[in-house]
TrEMBL record, chains A, B:
This is Hydroxymethylglutaryl-CoA lyase. The lineage of its organism: Bacteria, Pseudomonadati, Pseudomonadota, Betaproteobacteria, Burkholderiales. GO terms for molecular function: hydroxymethylglutaryl-CoA lyase activity; metal ion binding. CDD domains: DRE_TIM_HMGL. Residues 1-21 are annotated as: Disordered. NCBIfam families: PRK05692.1. It comes from Verminephrobacter eiseniae (strain EF01-2). Residues 8-285 form the Pyruvate carboxyltransferase domain. InterPro entries: Aldolase_TIM (IPR013785), HMGL (IPR043594), PYR_CT (IPR000891). GO terms for biological process: ketone body biosynthetic process; L-leucine catabolic process. Keywords: Lyase, Metal-binding. PANTHER family: HYDROXYMETHYLGLUTARYL-COA LYASE. Its EC number is 4.1.3.4. It is an enzyme of class 4 (lyase). Belongs to the HMG-CoA lyase family.
Length: 314, 314
């Protein structure tokens, strides 16, 4: 356990991952209310909305309205997600903290099925975004390899493929003279297990020892917290997570959909292991309860039901 | 990860842990149906009922009826739980596979609150049970230290206290010339986190290197699978678990009591990590769905919603 980080950075994605999944419409004011509550917990970065095609993701049709309504708090970054230049341009029209992103799926089949393009074409398409970022002096801070552990179409992804994709992303950044501050490995569809986490991180580290890595985990098959532990044991200090485990509802008949790793459960585990997260667990629990109230059905987070141990200690 | 076991033994406790917690009455026939389905999954040991005071645990008033109704399957052990000699004598009147057990809480306060006796008095009371076992040639195969990681009354339990309790249990067994085949450390009320798991296992191992250890984990605060991973990494090859994550401790003293670690989720993680469990995941998923249907409300298991990866690979 000697590689455990001393401090972990949690990138809250509940409002974006969660609300885009909900079947019923969520009031824009409720989205804003949750985002503002999350910003009071000590979280430093909150992904609020996604600027995607409202035809494909109706739950995000109010992205601009939500982004404009947030009363921002000093020291918190309010981010958004997009998948192409058009989305990024929409995002730039809002008061969100906009940064450039590059992302590629480890699975070629996943890319073709979801974006209608193979890896090479998708990488090429991102040249347009990167050129735009360079031209407008927008920092490129997020890079991700999605489906990094497996894909429902292609099966398990081996570490060598992850290394190849990282190499392609680094090459792309290099074309524009950009450094890569942090690379995320995303278990997009819930294939990861601890050995695969160790294997992928180990392979990337061996090739690029100085590259900072983060994990984006889903609890599709119940392994998210174990996968996070393996990440922590390998020194990973950056995790995407979602308040209350938003991002899928195993209790509402969305078969197979499961949320991101739950922010307050992960923060609880870190804090109890002596790893600083900078967040107030009690305030996070209140956010999780608010999220549950907003979506109107149970969410998978556990800590919000059991309460912290700190409360029992005092 | 070099200490990962090659094979893990799962002791299914869903029928006992789960049904004793349910608010509404569960039909005895449904309990039998689930137990018989579980026995067809490859699980080798199923804790079916508890022989406790029906006044305190009304859901187990039909323990004898359930035990007598099970059509037993070759190669499967059907066990029961009891807390005193009277309970054990009830169990012996049924066709269950009865073995002796000793158990002590690491927390003195927990013992006093729940059993009205301190550690010394509870150990003494178990002399009667052990004497009875020796007299009737009943093997004593289960020994547990409960609340081994913390207690809502006493707070965190340190590894030194666990070592002391193990020493007391070993001393008790030794008085009767009995070996201790396996010792379980139980996170009865959900205080464990991976560092505490490592610390307790490490301390017990250091003192008794040859003593086989098992873990009994609850997912009260979302850390059960991470705790299990830490156990696996330390070579633990025996886990109690509950189908669909059924269960909770009726004495936990707070509304947030959550179920045992989920059998099929744990089995899935083990199998994906190359650790043999001997169970058929698809059959286990069917059991989890049956359990949910029987209790009439959603249960926390994840794999039963997402399905196995093996199914996607083929």
């Amino acid at each position: 356990m000697s590689d455990l980080p001393r401090r972990v950075h949690l990138h809250e994605e509940g409002p974006r991952e969660g609300f885009q999944m909900e079947a019923g419409p969520i009031a824009s004011a409720d989205k804003v209310r949750l985002i503002e509550a999350l910003a009071r917990t000590g979280l430093r970065e909150i992904q609020c909305v996604s600027f995607v095609n409202p035809g494909r993701v109706p739950g995000m049709a109010d992205a601009e309205l939500v982004a404009q309504s947030i009363r921002k708090r000093q020291g918190v970054r309010y981010t958004g997600l997009w998948l192409n230049l058009r989305g990024m341009q929409r995002a730039l029209g809002t008061p969100l903290d906009i940064e450039g992103t590059v992302s590629i799926s480890a699975s070629e089949a996943f890319s073709v099925r979801n974006y209608g393009k193979g890896t090479a074409a998708l990488l090429d398409a991102q040249r347009t975004t990167l050129a735009f970022c360079v031209e407008h002096a927008i920092a490129v801070t997020r890079a991700s390899v999605t489906t990094a552990f497996g894909c429902n179409l292609e099966g398990a992804i081996c570490a060598a493929t992850v290394v190849e994709r990282v190499s392609q992303l680094l090459g792309l950044m290099d074309e524009f003279g950009l450094p890569l501050p942090i690379l995320r490995l995303a278990d997009t569809v819930g294939w990861a297990q601890p050995n695969a986490i160790a294997s992928a991180i180990g392979a990337v580290r061996e090739r690029w020892p100085a590259l900072r890595l983060g994990l984006h985990l889903h609890d599709t098959r119940g392994t998210a917290m174990a996968n996070a532990l393996m990440g922590l044991q390998m020194g990973i200090d950056t995790f995407d997570s979602a308040c209350a485990g938003l991002g899928g509802c195993p209790f509402a008949g969305h078969t197979g959909a499961a949320g991101n790793i739950c922010t307050e459960d992960l923060a609880f585990m870190c804090e109890e292991m002596g790893i600083d997260t900078g967040v107030d667990l009690e305030a996070l629990i209140e956010c999780a309860r608010l999220a549950e109230q907003i979506v109107g059905h149970p969410l998978p987070g556990k800590l919000m039901r059991a309460g912290t141990l700190e409360r029992l200690r005092h």
